[in-house]
Every structure is written in structure tokens, then in C-alpha cells.
Amino acid sequence: MEEKIAFLVLSSVLFLSLIGFVDSFAVGSSYWPENSLNMAPGETKIIDMRLQNIVGSEDENVRVVLEKGKEIAKVDEKDYFIPLGTSDAKVSIQISIPEDITVGTKYPVTLSFTGVNSNSGEGVSLGVSYNVDFDVLIVPKIPNQYEANSNLLWLVVALVLAVLVILVVILIILAKKKNKKIV
Amino acid sequence: MVMKIVLVVVLCVIVFSGMASANFLDWFRDIRLSPNQPKNVSVSIVGVQPVTIIIHNQTLIGIIPNQNTFLNINFPVTMIDPNGANDLNDSSVQANFSRSGEITRKNDSCSLISGQNTALSKNYSCSISMWYFDGAGDWSIEVVGRDIGNGTIISNTSSFSYGSLKSIEVSSEEITFPALIPGATNVNANNDPTFINNTGNWGGALNVRGVDLYAPPGQPVPSAFFGVGNFSISHISGNECIGTALQNATDKSSTNINRGNVSAGFGQTNVSYCITGVPSSLPAQQYSTASGGSWLINI
Question: What does each C-alpha distance from B57 to B107, B154, B165 come to in angstroms?
């Protein structure tokens, strides 16, 4: 009997209290599953995710991890300090597309943003986490209009030069014929 | 004879190169913008003195909502009237943002920017507030104005992209369970549900990622852990003990969270918790997330 009471007393220690912060950071993106990032083979771009802590009650630390798309994307995976009042803290992602990739290929990219709060160690804490997903869609390379015009310009210049060379040759031939007649 | 040949050749070069879609004369023409650069688009009304509105949307790039509040989006507009800038009705310039299925956001009175008038044109500053729950995607910009002389209404349209924002507010800071006895079943948390507000414009599945609870330092059996598989959740209070079972370090969805005006009662959901069973073999001591990590509410 004594043993049973002792057990119940000990059991009362086995309670759970879920404590923790109300995480209030946010993450914004210009790309999402229905709004792909279009890139051409061989192209490199840097895009930004935007962290906010506008309506929270304290500073936040946000852990950024690249979960999917490591073959094309690079991000500085670390804890980002987001002071209260921040509306536009940038997390830059570099995306590089190989030259030999087929047009139409779709790369899914996922980044996780997790609030890293202090954990008292006495209970269970709750946090907030966001997964930001988007696709990188490989599209044909669009030639730069100025570059294209420039190429055409060189073509025309080459044509003109060719015609001038022909003209000079004709003139030389005519001059020689004239000289022969004089002789 | 020689001069004739030279003239013929030069004329041939000009004629043939001019027939090409692009030729050396392009060199002297304007430098074109590449397709992905912002452009000003203008529309003229013919039949009266042509009046033009130019919407300068170049700065409207990478627009992201502000969590739980509005964002003022500012852009300039130029109105040009060949009858003279004085013929423009300064109080008539209005702008709006619209998108199918969304509330149109507008400014009924764009303001004149002083000191920028020319003989034929005036610049106006338009500011429109977009809310955190307005949908992500392409929004149309429409600007309307009027001239004084003949009262002509002039309008022009353009567009910009409004970004996606993931943001939630978890209202419950503390959830507690009553004292537990090993072997107990279906024990509800005594201060749930956790209320969750969507303070962004993304809507979709809301997950809970639980982790096993371990004994914090100083407990009698440091190696013991309380498996999170003994917990379940539901967005319907009363159903949590028959709800979705949690799994260690895995997102488990119990409901969706929609976007909407939280103040008007939209964009909200909640989560209730239950311990479906306390293992009889579990040592009676404290367990916490100190070493395993916090539980996460994830979208």
C-alpha cells in the first residue's frame, strides 16, 4: 500500500505543460507553386526571401534550411536574427542552371524557416515553421534584343565590305583592260 | 563608267539591306528594352486633343504584403495634354488595383507632385493600401483622369505582381495537461485549443510537427522518453482523442487554414490536443522538449 501511494505521488510529477512563445515572424516570396521562377540554361540569378517581424512582441531567430533543390540552389543556412519591427530582412538564394539542361525541366525548391526560441527545459514548447516552395522552370534562352541587332549590324557591315572588295576587283580589271587598249 | 558602277553597287547595298527585318539603319534607332524590363505604356484618345496617361510601375517589383496589416503602395503617374498642363483636372486623377476574385483597392484622389509641372504635363503621386490577406499574383493597375477643356475621361492600365506571405499567429502561450498516471488514456489538455490566426495571404494545410519528449537533466531516468505517437490532435474540440495521431519529427495535418480578414472572423483555425495513452512502463518523472526540440505549427 505504501508503495502504491509513493507511486502516485511520483506520478504527479509527470505532468506536461506546453509553454513557449507566440512566434510571429513571417516570410514573403515573389515565387510560389503557381508562380514559377523562369530561367534559361546556363543562367544564374539571385532571388530574395523576405523575413518580417512586424507584429511580434520580441526579437526572433529564424533558422533557414534548404530542404529541396540543392542541385541548383545555394543559400547561407544559418540562424538569422530578426529584430522586432523588421519588415524586410533578406535571405538571398543563388540559383544556377546548368548549360546542358533540357528546356521544360522543372526543379522544385523548398526552404524551411523555423523560429528558434529559447527553451526553458521544463516542459514542451511550441514554435512556428514555414515551408516556402516554388518551382524553377527551364525556358528557352531569349536573345538580348540589342545583342541581336548588334549581330545583324555586323552581318550588314561584312556584306558591305564584301561588295566593296568585289567593286575594287572590278575596278582593277577595268583599269587593266583600259591600259591594254592604250598600249 | 566607274562612277556608274559605284553608284549601282551602293544603291544595291542600301536597297537589299533595307529589305531585311533588321538592318544597319536600326543602329540609329532607339535602343530597345529587353522583354522583362518594366515599360511605360501610354494610350491616346484620338478625335479630341490627344491626352496621355503614363503609369510608372518600374518600382513595383518584389512587392510583399506586410504581416497582419496593410502596405501602402506608391507610384507616380504622368498626364500629358497638348492643350497645356493647365487643362488637366488635378482633382480627377484616381487609381485602383484589381484582380479577379479580390476586393478592388483604390485611391480616389492621387495628389499633384509640386514642382514637376512642364508646359504640357503634370506628375501625380498615387498611393493604394493593399492588405495582408489580398491574394498573391498579378494585379491590374488602372488610372483615370480628366481634362478641363472638354471633360474627356482618360484611362490607362498596367500591372504589378503582389507576392506571397506565410505568416501565422499562435495565440496560446501555454498548454497544460493535468497530472498523469502511467496507463491513463484519453487525457485532454486543460487549456486548449491553440488559436491560430493567418496573418499572411497564403492558405493551405496546417500541420503539427511533434517530437518525442525526453527527460530533462536531473531526472531519475535520463534515457526515458515519452513518444509523441501517444498524442493526437484535431481542429474540432472534443474530437482530439480520435483525431490525427502525431509522429516524431513529421508534419501531420489536422486542418486547413484559409486566408482572410482575421478581424472579420476569417483566416482562423485551432488545434486541440489529447494524450491517447500514457505507457504503463513510462517512468514517473518530467519530460520536455529541451533536448528533442519544440513542437512546430507549420504551414
Answer: 16, 18, 21
Name the residue of chain B whose CA is nearest to A114's CA: B296
Q: pTM of the predicted model, to two decimals?
A: 0.78
What is the sign of the dihedral through the CA atoms of B34, A136, A50 and A93? negative
R_g of chain B, CA atoms, integer Å: 33
B217 chain-A contacts, CB cut-off 8 A:
121
List A11's β-bridge partners, or say none.
none
| Cα–Cα distances in angstroms (integers) from residue A69 to residues B14, B22, B109, B250, in the given order | 53, 41, 46, 20
Distance to chain B for A102, nearest Cα, Å: 22
Task: Tell me whether residue B49 is exposed, middle or buried, using C-beta atoms within 10 angstroms of its C-beta: 0 to 12, 13 to 18, 19 or more.
Answer: middle
Q: Find where cell 509523441 sits.
A: B228
* Distance from C-alpha of A26 to C-alpha of A22, rounded to nearest angstrom: 12
Cα dihedral sign, A59-A65-A69-A73: positive
Strand partners, B277: B185
Chain A residues 114-173 with CB within 8 Å of chain B: 114, 117, 119-132, 142, 144-146, 148-149, 152-153, 156-157, 159-160, 163-164, 166-167, 170-171
The SS3 of residue A149 is: helix
CB-based contact (8 Å) between A38 and chain B? no
Helix (H) or strand (E) run with residue B38 in it: none
Its ipTM equals: 0.80
- pLDDT tens for residues B27-72? 434 334 344 444 555 544 443 566 789 999 999 999 999 999 999 9
**What gap in Å lies between CA A148 and CA B178, rounded to an integer?**
74
